[in-house]
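Re: export button greyed out
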Amino acid sequence: MEDMSQYPTELSGPDVPMVRFMSVTKSYGALTVLDSLDLDVSEGEMVTVIGPSGSGKTTVLRMLMTLETINGGVIYVDGKPLTHMEKNGVLVRADAKYLRRARSSIGMCFQHFNLFPHMTAIQNCMEGPVQVLGLPKAEARERSEELLSMVGMIDKKDQHPSRLSGGQQQRVAIARALAMRPKVMLFDEVTSALDPEVIGEVTGVIRKLVAEHNLTMLMVTHQMGFARDISDRVCFFYQGKIEEQGAPESLFGNPQRERTQQFLSAVKAAD
Amino acid sequence: MSYWEFLAQNAPRYLDGTLVTIAQFFLSAMLAVLLALTAGLMKLSRNAAMRWTAGVYIEIFRGTSLLIQLYWIFFVLPLFGVTLDKFYAGFVAVGLNLGAYGAELVRGGIQSVPKGQWEAAYALSMSPAKRMYRIILPQALLNMLPPWGNLMIELLKATALVSLISVTDLMFEAKQINGSTFLSAQAFGTALIIYYVFARLIVTPFMRWLERVMARKLGRA
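Workaround output, generated via the alternate export path:
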């Protein structure tokens, strides 16, 4: 059993990050996917996670969405524990009710969009605000229309997902996640399932978000050019650890570690 | 006596029997749907006692003969102080039996909804009940409608067994008519046609219509 008293029940001080992974470990049986990960993401920062498949990069996002439980360590969001809750001055594993409240500050977009097929674009966006936040329908509709306009999908708002292209579905999925007004947005390979010619419409929306909103974002992507353009920081994951991290210019332009160099040249060769 | 004379003479009895069969069909179908949903959801519960209870129900009612279940409910339960009128015993037995089959359809239908749907609903912080009710069940329902159509035909045919505890359904009337006229071909032939027409021209088209309506609601039409 891990000694939980080493973890603060709340982060305080002037530089509390929006997200903090503190010694986070994730394993499936004997297989360790993430090994004592420490990672901070500041408010408004865009951090991109790259790395070979199986390096644990998607797991980072899924743990933050609490889709995966962690085996060790604590994740904090906005200074408060996400995966744990305080009980008699120590952190204990969060129960379902605590998790549900805690994760509402996090939004996620998935590789395969996962729009609700039985709802139109706008119903998809309104579902969370109405059913979870308890917003009146009119207000949720107004908010959803605003977001659908932002992602350029307002003229398709009454279409079901089956009538939309992959790029269009992903843009609706981004609007759906934003409708919950999350503090942190997660993008898990959101362009990987798209045809090359529509990737631009999705990356365009993310660029706009970075430029116009002070949203904290974590993104896993294989689009190196895109990552280089918009990230504040890039983390290269290798075998469950951050092998190297830094500003995109330095990580892409002058990688220090051999693994990073190998990975980047392999990716370049594939392009 | 021509068949038409036979029919004219016995039409009121066939009509009475058909109405009872229709009543048995609808009541047992409602019960079966209700039980199937309940047991199917319980089978997927995290709570072991719930899973176990549903499992026992499904095992017993799927694993033994409907006729024996019918006799148990009508003849044996009174020995334990539970007496059901034959009409109730009839549709309760059929509903319990087909509900057990339906429970497996419900479970399979829910499990066939892609995992990404659960995750998307989870990521929106929806409660487990809302995830199920608002997101998963509507999609599961469409997946399971075709096999439910099959089950409804099975259920209609199964209601013929209630005649054995003297519920005056279509089968019961056919036997009575056969006993008094000795015209077996006509007596049972007519019943056969009525069952077939009901299944083919009412139950099946209704289920198809339901599939179309649901598909349209899900934007798949």
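Chain A has one domain: 4-270. The button fix ships in the next patch.
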